Amino acid sequence: MAANDARTGQDRSPLGGLLRFCIENKLVVALLVLFGVGAGVMVAPFDWQIDGLPRDPVPVDAIPDLGENQQIVFTEWMGRSPQDVEDQITYPLTVALLGLPDVKTVRSYSFFGFSTIYVIFAERADFYDSRSRILEKLNALPAGTLPGGVAPALGPDATALGQIFWYTLEGRDDAGEPAGGWDLDELRSIQDRYVRYSLAAAEGVAEVASVGGFVREYQIDVDPDAMRAHGVGIDQVYEAVRQSNVDVGARTIEINGAEYVVRGLGFLKGLDDIGKSVVSVRDGTPVTIDEVATVATGPALRRGALDKAGAEAVGGVVVVRYGVNPLQTIKNVKDRIAEIAPGLPRRTLPDGRTSQVTIVPFYDRTGLIDETLGTLRTALTDEILITVIVVLVMIAHLRSSILIAGLLPLAVLLTFVAMKFFGVDANIVALSGIAIAIGTMVDMGVILCENILRRLEAAGPDERSIDVIHAAAVEVGGAVLTAVSTTIISFLPVFTMQAAEGKLFKPLAYTKTFALVAAIIVALTVIPPFAHLLFTGRRGRWFGRRLTGLLLVAAGVAAAVKLTPSVGAALVAWGAWSLAGERLPRSVRGRGSLVANWVAVLVVGSALTRHWLPLGPEPGFALNFLFVAVLIGGLLAGFHLLQRQYPRLLGWTLAHKRL
Description:
Layout: H1 2-12, H2 14-24, H3 26-43, E1 69-76, H4 82-97, E2 103-111, E3 114-121, H5 127-139, E4 153-154, E5 163-172, H6 184-200, E6 205-212, E7 216-222, H7 224-230, H8 234-244, E8 248-255, E9 258-264, H9 271-275, E10 278-282, E11 285-288, H10 289-292, E12 293-299, E13 306-308, E14 311-320, H11 326-340, E15 346-348, E16 354-364, H12 366-394, H13 398-422, H14 428-458, H15 465-489, H16 492-495, H17 499-525, H18 527-535, H19 537-562, H20 565-580, H21 586-612, H22 621-655
Antiparallel strand pairs: 1-3, 1-4, 2-3, 5-14, 5-16, 6-14, 7-12, 8-9, 10-11, 13-14, 15-16
Helix pairs in contact: 1-2, 2-15, 2-18, 3-13, 6-11, 12-13, 12-14, 12-21, 13-14, 13-17, 13-18, 14-15, 14-17, 14-18, 15-17, 18-19, 19-20, 20-21, 21-22
């Protein structure tokens, strides 16, 4: 009666009721686990391509963007001094933009021929709403605020870290070796008229800016003596060129019931057209431009150059749009490059080789992003292997080690779902929050599994296993929940940070909180029902052995492909031993379980050594394995000694409270 009353009291608590529901409704829990895994795989930032499963990954970048919430207004006024630009453009625009909502400060710079204004908004201001406010203000400027013909332009919708891909245009032969054969002005023309527009059409790209080379333009070099002889001024030459390069429309005429549109075609098509443009008429004789000036093509004035390995080059920079996944944008750009590459110009060189213009990347942020994701992947893999070793040595229970190890990837996938829902981008700081939380996540599974195994060993023959597991989970569940809640609450001050420090540390606080919440959910709702399925009853032991054996065989096949054949063969043999199960004599099974545990420790330790290589690859596998064995073995031996001596130490401290 007392046991039933205690069980009823445990069921009435919210935690006890939740645990009872999960243990008794394993199918519901399994379906929720499958749903969580599917959702996590859909939004995971890794480069996973799974047939039949749509992908919408969390935006991932190498480092967090610590820049201000700013917009750039650029105004060009050719040929004017910095003082003129400051007085007539920069100052009026700065005064007008100061009145925008949520503006924190306005910084302006005046240079020769152009003005740049940085409008910095408060962090709470929406990025695209602030752009709309600026455009409204620029369109509503009173007449006469700016000089005639001056039009301010808003910068691209990108941040200071938006430059994700740099490339150059180079002549390459059929073997992919540098061949040359292209002038800088030719490469710049190809970049401006073909490559730039093609890459700008890739999804997620805000702007493709051209760098280096020479912009080809028509140049008219006037002859002062000839102009004086013909009585022509520079303003007449300018106006003649401007008016000659235009199409004009006239009325329509009707002939035989058909209406025809009359147009004057006047667009310039070459140097001869410019030279034949009439500047003025003197004594009935037209004076053309080629009589007072020399018309030719030449390079436009430039303020910089692009250098690659000591030589001038032509290239471009791809800027990603604000809030878009940089990794996916880089893939879109590369797909676009592969699409347009066959259509780039090619020519035959004097030596008989063929030179084709080729897009050659020289900065690609994909490598940095892959290293960032590799940090989390490495930490997760090492932690799982260490967890298996610790559980096998300290608890000597194979199925519990697999159950605890399965907690980590499931909790990490649920963390990715939370990151997607709350709009937290993945970067080195955010993913480090998950890596930091891995140790605490493992602790929850170890505590629950160890307490469940201890209570099952001490349970009487009349006690139901489901009640024993429920009581064991309730016994430590409250303490685990309290400990994790304390850790989460301790991060609350981080969420109050503002500006650059907030952008740097908030992602870490978010991801660690998500990871801990996901781990506590998995530990309290998934481990108890699966422990009841794997640990208890004849059917549970039968199912657990076969599930363990199948998992080990699958892991062995994967290890043989990814690691070494020896590790794969050991895991397959271990799985075969688990599948043999009941067919072996009891004495053989007893000794075999102990041997299998230590073989498992050696196999997992070998895999951990090959993956970790703490001393580096130069000392070889043997020294690395010895280092790992001494390090982990020494720590586990110390913990085991403390565990054995703890009752005596606790008794002594209780007996000497004053001391």
